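Suppose you are handed a protein chain with no further information: no name, no annotation, nothing but its sequence. What can you learn? This example shows the usual starting point.
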Amino acid sequence: MDIIILLGAILLAYGGMLILYYYLRSKERKKATSDSMLKGLTSMRRGNLDKALFYFDKAYEYSIENNSREEMAEALYSIGIVYKEKGENDNAMEYFNSSIDVYRELQDNEGLKKVMLASRSIRKVDN
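A reasonable first move is to predict its three-dimensional structure. Written in structure tokens, the prediction is:
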């Protein structure tokens, strides 16, 4: 009987350690996404668009790993903004459209508004 109780305690402890491990790992990934977004914004404000694109791409990859649709939409939007600033309007529209799809899926009207506004500004320039 004591062995069964001991095995049960070991299994519970192991399960708790696994939960803690995955919780901490997911926090690290979310922090990595936030850090990449912050570095991308800083680079963009400093005019280093290629570096900003690198960080936003990285944030997008992290958001896929984390299965975080909100962060994914934001990263796609930010990549679109960088392409818009570089004058690559076709690429910008591609990323804006992808961001719109994710924001619609999330039913995030505020996100939709900002992407629609950015995409409209490109359409006005192209006309």
